[in-house]
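=== RUN LOG ===
request id: a7f3
mode: sequence -> structure
chains: 1
length: 548
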Amino acid sequence: MSIHPRAGQPVNASERINIAKLISEYYTLTPDMDREEQHVSFGTSGHRGSASNINFNKSHIVAICQAVVNYRQSNNINGPLFLGKDTHALSEAAFNSALCVLVANDVNVVVQQDEGFTPTPVISRLIINHNKNNQQQADGLIITPSHNPPSDGGIKYNPPHGGPAEGSITKIIERDANLLIADDLINVNQVSLQRAITSPLLSKQDFIALYCDELEQVIDMKAIANAKVNIGVDPLGGAGIDYWPYIKSHYGLNLTVVNDVVDASFAFMPLDKDGKIRMDCSSPYAMKGLIEMKDKFDVAVGNDPDFDRHGIVTSTGGLMNPNHYLAVAIHYLMTHRSWGADCKIGKTLVSSSLIDRVAALIDRPLCEVPVGFKWFVDGLHDGSYAFGGEESAGASFLAKDGSCWTTDKDGFILTLLAAEILAVTGKNPHQYYLELVEQLGAPFYGRVEAVANLEQKRVLSNIDADAVTATELAGEEIQSILSHAPGNNAAIGGVKVVTKNGWFAARPSGTEDIYKIYAESFIGEQHLAQIIKQAQQIVSNTFTQAGL
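=== RESULT ===
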């Protein structure tokens, strides 16, 4: 993808979203069920869309919430449901719609006091804590499209294990929601918002204190405080905005929030690589403001709007590549925690092979799974996975005693870990990375995207390894062609081709009309470019063979 000429520059007035129009569209536009792009569709991180495109409107949300209620009833999930929201413009409207359906169905709903925002990892932690000692199991809904542009909305369901719902669950919710919409919502129970907010079924808690007070169970907060690590934080206007001041005060940290603005238009954000506003904490364009402050802090960190992703900035290296930081985090944790030697390192198949080399170096088992954090949930829940991470800057890991912390991505603990690494080792994460690659070799990683229609995406997601007939990739013999992940034999939903010093993976997006190619070389940039070029040709040939 070419870089937009205004990437990294401030937003112009004409580029801001019209929030009033967007909210009006949420309530007034209804989906045409003869158009597949207007259906409820769950990707790896829930259902996402925009009211303007008629794929994230009140009809979608009330139908999804009724489908979740039906799923709860059929699976005897009768505890409370923790409901959270982020700072996107559509999140408030969707939150209210969800509340009206849940209360109408006699669900006990728990929300943040003062109608505040709630990060994704907090919902996961609340579910896990509740379900330790209660037979009536809790679950949760989070209203968020993650780092997507301001005009987007999203909703995701976390069942009683606390992590993202697996495909077997989301397919049921997706199917039932679409049937409810097609039947004009006649089987969706709703009460008025006034009745919902005054219902005894609705309770409020201080999620901030409940979550933050336990952080010392997973991060060495005393080491950070004692070392007086100078931490800069940019919440990027997200749901964790009120958590950082509490963390600073509670643990006595040398921490500065450099941006405390909450604005549903996100007009304070620099434009991303494609010229859109996107709160992607792994993008050097979206993180330009924090990168420019790198010399003011020992470590500077950012998060996306629902705080399930992390961005790490150091004075020596600027914004770290997410893959590089994952490798550092894994090596540090596995050599500074007393977890069992049989605890697995979990990685998605599009994450860097540097992680494979780290696992081999420290002699720990590695498990490579398809894209999606849901594949780590069971392992994090039962403690068999010490760490689960994906290349899009999302990860979580066990508490210090080896117990489950969260089963969803946690941007808080990954950013605080960067400060712990510096406090304990005297090296910031970038310096730690340089020492690693001196031993293991430096990776060159790239990702490109291309437009793909629904039929092309369907073909790519169902590709068989035998469809790739090439024997060499960028001058190296192909060692394996995968349509299923080696760690759990689950379908990739695409293909991965591996050589001794490089690989590529191609898969369709679950939420956008594009496909993505991920590639890596341990030889150099030119070799990486060759891998990507050949990967594009292989995908093109696949479409041609299918008559597309």
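=== NOTES ===
The domain at 17-210 is CATH 3.40.120.10 (Alpha-D-Glucose-1,6-Bisphosphate; Chain A, domain 3).
The two ends are 22 Å apart (CA to CA).
=== END ===
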